[in-house]
Design brief:
5 helices, 76% helix
Length: 132
Amino acid sequence: MRRFVVTVVGNAIALWLTTLIVAGIGVTPYRNDDVVATVLTYLLLGLLWGLVNGILGTAIRIVAFPLYILTLGLLALIVNGLLFLLVAWISDLLGFGLHVDGFWWGVLAALVMAIINWALGLVLRPLAGAKD
């Protein structure tokens, strides 16, 4: 359970930093007048990103494994960009969330978020513990 919470919080922080770095994406909280609403929006988006990337992303990586080998992993950038757009679409259906200006902004945001998540993982991994 602790690992799950740390992962969601790490995704939320990475998404927040990504929105500060990449100009083509933004987040709209479900209420504009509240800091708590903004934090909860980022946490919900971190949870949504984790679910989409964990379930759908893993299935795509398994099915497309030969293409990953053939393209030397460059297909991962395209897949992660599409997953980023999917998270934006799902959050838009829910009435809040992520806005991406286009496909290439999604690819760039996914790349930046992956790098930030990697760095945060180095810092937060001791908090998550080895096993639950």
